Amino acid sequence: MKKSSIVYLILVIFACGSINPLQAKTNPASVPEGDIKWTTIDKALSETKINNKKFILVNLYTDWCGWCKKMDEGAFSEASIVALMNANFTPVKFNAEIAQPIMFNGKTYNFNKSGQRGANQLALDLGSTSGKLGYPTLVVLDANGNKIQAFPGYKDVETLGAILKYFQSGNYKTMDFQQFQSGQ
């Protein structure tokens, strides 16, 4: 009688939707088709080589950053941006305030406490412009993990699309971003 009660309880839970048996088998790292296929900074180089991408786009963010969340809900959710990023870049979400050491490109980067907060040294190395790091900051790296350019601040769909096309087209080799953007 106890077995039948347990079976009944499990069926009730499934029927109520508290536990979806299909979700239990789904890989939590899998991404719906219409979303950016974000990866982590420590996996970026190997995924870039495996997927034969030319660039890594690092989104430096923090959990408390309102503009970072606005980009997630806006520009990073736009279908044209999702398509450009997934086709041409290895997209990385990197919480700049992560306290754990990060391995990237054969080097370990540690957290640097500064005031009440701080940042991981890799975020500082990648995202600093004029010695300061702001959030969000987008950083484009080549396939070997070398920094090409950082773009601090919030980016709307139009600006982010221009940044992605600037690198995809190869124009970053012959002109600066402002020239490219004014010519579009």
- Biggest sheet character: 4 strands, mixed
Regions with little confidence, pLDDT below 50 for 5+ residues: 4-32
The number of domains: 1
User: Termini separation (Å)?
Assistant: 73 Å
CATH topology: Glutaredoxin
Query: Which CATH class applies here?
Result: Alpha Beta
What is this structure's SSE topology?
Blueprint: H1 2-16, H2 21-25, H3 41-50, E1 55-61, H4 66-73, H5 79-88, E2 89-95, E3 102-104, E4 107-109, E5 111-114, E6 117-120, H6 121-127, E7 137-142, E8 147-152, H7 157-168, H8 177-183
Parallel strand pairs: 1-2
Antiparallel strand pairs: 1-7, 3-4, 5-6, 7-8
Helix pairs in contact: 5-7
Please, could you describe this protein's structure?
The protein is of the alpha+beta class and 184 residues long. It has one domain: Glutaredoxin. It contains 8 helices and 8 strands, in the order H-H-H-E-H-H-E-E-E-E-E-H-E-E-H-H. Strands 2-1-7-8 form a 4-stranded mixed sheet. Helix 5 (79-88) packs parallel to helix 7.
